Amino acid sequence: MAVAAGHLIVPARPPITNRVKALREAHGQMSQAELGLAVGVTRQTIIAIEQGRYSPSLETSFRIARRFGVGLEEVFAWEGD
Amino acid sequence: MAFREKTAWAMAVVMLLTGLFYAWQVTRAHALLPALVGYTIVAIVLSIVVHTALALGNPADARAPRDERERLAIALAGYRSGVALAAMVATSACVFVLVGDGRLLFHLVIGSLIVAQIGTYGQEAWLLRRGI
What we know:
The complex is a heterodimer. By secondary structure, chain A is an alpha+beta fold.
C-alpha cells in the first residue's frame, strides 16, 4: 500500500534486495541482535531489513556494510525495473 | 515482539478501555468536567501502570532510544491520526452548526481525541509489526 501523505511518501515494498542474512551467517553466525547493536538499530529492524520489509537509511546501510567489511553494493542491490 | 510494539499495543488497549469508560460516563449524563477529569485520571494511571510494567520486564529495551524504523512508524502514525483528528473535529463543528448542542460538541471533540489516540497507537503497532 503506497501512501502519499504530504511530503512523506512510503513505497509499498522497497525495491531493494539485500544479502544481510547471508553476510551475517558468513561472519561467524552473527546474531540479528549483535548486528543491530553494532549498527544502532533493534533486532526487529534487522529482521525487517532481511525480510525486505524495510529499507534502512543510508547511514545504517553504510554501517552494515562497514560492519561486514564490504562495499555498499555488496550488501544492497536495486531490483530491476 | 519489539518493546516499542508492545507499548504501542498496550497503549492502544488502554486508550480503548478508557474511551469506553468515557462513553459510559457520557451515557450516564455525568457533568462535563467530572467526566473529563475522571477519564483523564484513569487514562494517566493506566498508562503509568502499563509503561512501568513493560519497562520492568524489559529494562534494557525501555532505556534504548528509538531507532530509525520506530521513529518513522511513530511519525507516519502520528501524521495519519492528525489528519483523521482534523476531519473528526471539523465534522463535530458541522454537527454543532446544525444541531447547536454545545454539550454534544464537547463530547464529539473529546471522542475525536480518544479515537485519534487509539488510531495512533494501533497504527504504530501495525507498522512496526507489518513493516513500513
